[in-house]
Amino acid sequence: MKRIDRRAFLSRSGATLLGTALGTSLLTRPARAAAGQASRVIFFYFPDGVVGASQSGQPSLWHATGSENAFSLSPQLQPLARHQESCLFFRGLSMGPTDSGSHPGGAKKLLTAVDGGNGESIDFVLSRTAGQAALHRHLYLGVMANQSSASGDKHISYSASGQSATPEDDPSAAFQRLFGNGVPNVPNPPTEPTPNRRRSVIDGALADLAAFRERVGPVELRKLDAHLDSLRELERRIQNTTQPPPPTEVCRTPTRSTVPNAEIYRPERFPELLRLQTDLLVEAMACRLTQVGVIQNAFHTSDLIMSRFPNTPMHDPGFDMRSHQASHYGNQHDPNHREYADYLSQRIWWVEQFAYLLDQLKARPEGEGTMLDHSVVVLVTEVCDGNTHSHDDMPFVLAGRAGGAIRPGRLLSYDYARHGGLWASVANAMGQSFTGFGDSGAGPLGGVLG
Amino acid sequence: MRWLYCGLIVGLVACQGGVSSTDPLPPDPNNPNPTPPTGDDRGAVWYGMQCASCHGALGEGGTAPALNGWTKPRDILVAVIDERMPLGNPDLCRGDCAERVADYILEELQGPLPECEGGVPSLRRLRLLTRREYRHTVADLLDAPAPVCMAIGDCQLETQSCEAGLCVADACELHTFVLDLPDRTPAQVVVAGTFNGWAPTAAQGAWPLQRLPGSQRWFAKQRLPNGQHDYKFVLDGQEWRADPNNPNTVPDGQGGVNSRLTQNCGAEVPVTPGADPTLHFPVESRPAGYFFDAHAASGVVSPVHVDEYLSAAQVFAEQVATRSALANCRDQACDRNFIRNFGSRAFRRPLSEPEVQRYLALIGADRAAGIRTLIEVLLSSPNFLYRSELGTADGAWFRLDEWELASVLSYQLWGTMPDQALFDAAAAGQLSSAAGRRAQAERLLADPRAADHLGDFAIDWLGLAGVIDQPKRGELFPEVTPGLRTAMLQETRQLFADVALGGGGYAQLLLADYGYVDGALARLYQLPGTYGAELTRANKPALRAGILGQASVLFAYAHSDQGSPIKRGVFVRERLLCQKFGVPPPEAGGLPEVDPNATTRERFQMHSGKPSCNACHQYIDGVGFGFERFDAIGRARDQENGRPIDDRGVIVDLEAFGRGTTAEFNNLAELGVALAQSQAGPDCMATQYYRFVQGEAEGETDRCLLQPFLGRYRAQGGDLRALILELIADPAYALRRGEP
Predict the structure, then answer these.
(1) Which fold has domain A26-185+254-440?
(2) Which of A47, A86, B154, B559 could form a disulfide with B149 if both were Cys (CB 3.0 to 4.6 A apart)?
(3) Which strands form B735-736's sheet, in the order they lie side by side?
(4) Half-sphere exposure of B680 (CA within 13 A, CB side)
(5) Average pLDDT score, chain A
(6) How many beta-carbon pairs below 8 A join chains A and B?
(7) Which residues pair with B193 in a beta bridge?
(8) Do A234 and B34 touch (CB under 8 A)?
(9) What's the pLDDT at B147?
(10) Residue B387: its pLDDT value, please?
(11) Beta-strand runs (E) in B18-157
């Protein structure tokens, strides 16, 4: 089926453009060159939305309320109170009308800002551009994100149009790949074969790839070029381990995971696994091994039994309450309704895990401040209210100062602005001058930078 | 069950256009928001995006009725599209869209469909080995059967030992001393040297040699540490001799020479028997709606892949370096021979002379390191990692060569590399002919590996892999153990092997009155009699006929604490009938309060009450109710919450949505009968098998490749084995098409 266009258009399409135009005119700050830029970006995903505006019309219990510089946090955002001055909160961001009301539709648009996932996601684009010099260009970690053969639209990161990547669910495997050789500037004896031997292997593979390249057409060529890129990344890594990069202030080998591979899909282990993956990602970034990271928690509509997470508010050994099950809490916010109560405590728990990530980044000094000051960290999920599956008023949070490019501690309100603009702003904060991204239309989201 | 409505269906695929993996360009970040299609062809564009995946690109039908052959007035078509289409999301095409799409349908999609004379073959491509294929391939590559022996004399003395009836290559550290004494037979022969203090007799610490029975050859195998070792043989405690087979000598300070050997073995990486080399390989990427792991277009090598391939190759290099014939080659001819043989098997085609030279050059002065590098290079090469289906140009198409065909056959039927017989057939040029391919295919199908591979297909097709780790509440279901889970899956694999290879056909899949059980599974099924630890065939109650009554299905499509009519209904439609549901409408949520004391059936009543829910749920709920007899782990029950089980149901539009048929049934077995007698059922199994083999998701295969075979296949009762052989014998099997 030939794809000429990627949009399904309604009679609402006029409103889309109008909405975008209004969105950028409400905040008239142009995207001027930022004072500094972010060294790294992290996307932190949790599934199945939040308690937003109810079907019956009650106001959202997620979004902060107030004015740009004087606002108050909602119950679900309370865990971020200690980071309030480091965060940007949003109202009025939309992922557009296509597939609205759908979990998979939302997941496909989330990081690509293109309907149907027919585009490269922002994390992969940044790994090729701002993050291309890093030893590991792209780090995609998951917690139970591959369970039950999840694939396709369950994964939020797209390495190419229509092709989602798969995250690494086992912290031991991720550790081995990142720190297995010993950290570059910490004297651990390497256990790997000599760099020369590895180089021979890579050279051999490159030569064989060259032979194939002559025989194939453009579609297969893309595959081979991706293989080539991957080999070159490994080559670079090998060259680097022989010449350690300049030391950083804080770079230590993180704790090894003790969760056996056979247990990485037991719900009881989830909080522990997420902690391990978060620590691993922060350490990898502190050691300058990567600049682009994605943490994916489970996936939309999964059977993730959150009531089995030990030592959490929603823990209940007597009853299995799943994330998606709780998200359909009914058409109104009713604290006496079990699904609603569990859903609310689940969402607060997700935000607390995001706050922990910010804690870790804030705890490490960098330059004149902390790692968080030089980062962009984004909290995402694939729908707004879990019951209505709305793709409007998306519950995103952006944390970090991006080296001065971003002035956090504000509530930014838009009138139906497309979320691709936010990704363009993130890219700009990383020093990439995108005038748009995916569906962003008029350009980067006004007001984010500066 | 409150959360259940149209929006919840697991594995939804948007009917109005799924993801396309052939779209070449990422979005241009500088491109402003594109406008709706405005050209004169926008009807065609919208049709392609929103209608084709259900109604067919040519309007030939599929999940939804054919539009080719529309006889009613135009206004009715416009109204249907405007108000009701796409299914489940009618707002998407209103007004101008509805008008233009209707015009397109009436102008372009009427008239007879082109006859299928033959289809357009699949694209030429490289197919990356999946984890499963990689595992099987290296196991076959590295574990070639060893010659059988009774005693060490039956093996190659210098490099092998006889262990448990097999000649096994010695580890590198094990050095074999050999001395031939054709003219005398001493009472004792020992080897004395720097490693044991030059003792002249065994009593003083020298290492005794033993005589090979029926010969004048003496030998000893000893572990030596790395480094230089000087030695001599001592006969009868007095006569000292240097090793005549060792050219390296040094003066012994007494006018003679000592023999000198240098041991240089790399650190042996311990290989845990049974360890899975692919444990940390990345999970295969594939599009939503494709049930298998070998999606051809998605097999792309990421940096994580490269890392893992190199690590795995390192482990295998140790194995080969220390335990194969290459370790003990003494001349270049031997090296060459090994490289040619091993390399050809690794690449699944003969090596060219330049390739042999290139790999030979890797074994330099440091032999131990060179061998390891060589093996790592071979196992990291794209020639090993990809299966080539590129072919060479031949008229309008590309023709696969004998070697490519050998791999296509072996990976299709066994999921692994060709065996020697298949390589021999390729070398003899037999696979280019239909008869030759057919003969090999019949041989492969008769091997147990074929049944095993078909079992893999069945588990993936039916979506049962999660049975292994899906949580179930322990206090409700204490009988669930890892052994029970494995037995459930094994039962399904064996039944499917019967169906596919035993001539039972599709009907057997749905109607089989037997299963395969061990003790635990028999207890679950409440079968009389006693069963052991091995699975044996046993008759099952009528209500549990076929695949629908198997524990694996009932277990997988349920929650941790209760069954699920929705999951089971969707299973039947998506997996057994290949029917897909579209994206739910916005705000499909909003569930009215539900009485927790109501029965399952009553609780789902609200689906039929709301049109936006009912659009999809009319097809699901009625089918799912048929499973009510069986709980979350597949046990049978007679009542739920004190009310008797009501497992009657109805199947709406069995063959395709929109046909307007309804069929009632009284229980699960009757549902099975309806499926067994359908056309959509066997067609779905054949279609899924084809996608499994070709690595192509829906819409990626030309409809005329499979279509011509389906009529005959159905007429033969859905005989999968016969279909497999026909497809293999077809000329298109050996062809691929180039990219435009």
Answers:
(1) Alkaline Phosphatase, subunit A (3.40.720)
(2) B154
(3) B392-394, B397-399, B735-736
(4) 23
(5) 86
(6) 328
(7) B231
(8) no
(9) 52
(10) 97
(11) 125-128
- The Cα A345–Cα B721 span in angstroms is 54
User: Do the Cβ atoms of B561 and A320 come within 8 Å?
Assistant: yes
Note whether A94 and A373 are within 8 A (CB).
Answer: no
**Beta bridge mates, A141:** A168, A295
For every residue of A368-387, DSSP letters joined together read: TEETGGGEEEEEE-S-SBTT
Residue type, B341: N
Give just the sign of the alpha carbon dihedral A169, A171, A172, A178: positive
Across the interface, of A148, A305, A319, the residue whose CB is closest to B466 is A148
User: Is B471–A149 a contact, with Cβ atoms under 8 angstroms apart?
Assistant: no
Q: Which residue is closest to A122 within chain B, CA to CA? A: B29
Cα(B712)–Cα(B733) distance, integer angstroms: 18
Measured distance between the N- and C-terminal CA atoms of chain A, rounded to whole angstroms? 44
Cβ–Cβ below 8 Å for B18 and A261: no
> How far does the CA of residue A83 sit from the closest CA of chain B (Å)?
31
Closest CA to B306 of A204, A147, A143: A204
SS (H, E, C) B254-287: CCCEEEEEEECCCCCCCCCCCCCCCCCCCCCCCC
Indicate the range of A133-147, B51-65, B334-348, B473-487 predicted with least confidence. Answer: B51-65
Report helix, strand or coil for B699: coil
Say how many domains are in chain B. 2
- Note whether residue B630 is domain-resident: no
pLDDT reported for residue B640: 82
Question: CB count, 10 Å around CB of B182?
Answer: 8
Q: What is the arithmetic mean of pLDDT over A163-176?
A: 94
- pLDDT tops 50 at residue A32: no
Question: Is the model's pLDDT at A246 over the cut of 60?
Answer: no
Last residue of a domain, one of B248, B263, B278: B263
CB atoms inside a 10 Å sphere around CB B38: 11
Q: Is residue B458 part of a domain?
A: yes
Domain segments of chain A as ranges: 26-185+254-440
Determine the Cα–Cα distance for residues A195 and A175; give it in Å rounded to an integer: 20
Domain boundary, last residue among B527, B556, B585: B556
Set of chain B residues whose Cβ sits within 8 Å of the Cβ of A217? 124, 738-739
Please compute the mean of the pLDDT values over residues B495-504 and round it to a whole number. Answer: 92
Is a pLDDT exceeding 90 seen at residue B174?
Answer: no
Mutation target to probe the A interface, by most A beta carbons within 10 A, among B45, B87, B304 is: B304
Residue A179: which pLDDT band, with cuts at 50, 70 and 90? confident
Interface test with B, best of A112, A123, A143, A151 (most B CBs within 10 A): A151
Q: Provide the mean pLDDT of chain B.
A: 86
DSSP string covering B614-670, please?
HHHHHHHHHHHGGGTTB-TTS-B-SEETTEEP---EEEESSSSTTS--EEEESSHHH
Amino acid at B161: S
- Output the pLDDT for position B44: 86
- For residue A247, what pLDDT is reported? 53
User: Any chain B CB within 8 A of the CB of A104?
Assistant: yes
List CB contacts (< 8 A) between A436 and chain B. Answer: 29-32
Residues in contact with A129: Cβ distance below 8 Å, sequence separation at least 6, in sequence order: A427, A430, A432
pLDDT category, B269, cuts 50, 70, 90? very low
User: B589 vs A389: CB contact, 8 Å cut-off?
Assistant: yes
How high is the pLDDT of residue B583? 64
Burial class from Cβ neighbours inside 10 Å (0-12, 13-18, 19+) for residue B267 reads exposed
**What ipTM does the predicted assembly reach?**
0.87
DSSP for A121-173? -HHHHHHHTTTTTSSSS-EEEEES-SGGG--GGG---EEETTEE---B--HHH
Domain assignment of residue B304, yes or no: no
Greatest mean pLDDT among A28-37, A214-223, A344-353, B693-702 lies in A344-353
3-state SS class at B563: strand
Whether residue B91 is predicted with pLDDT greater than 60 in this model: the reply is: yes
> What's the domain range around B464?
447-556
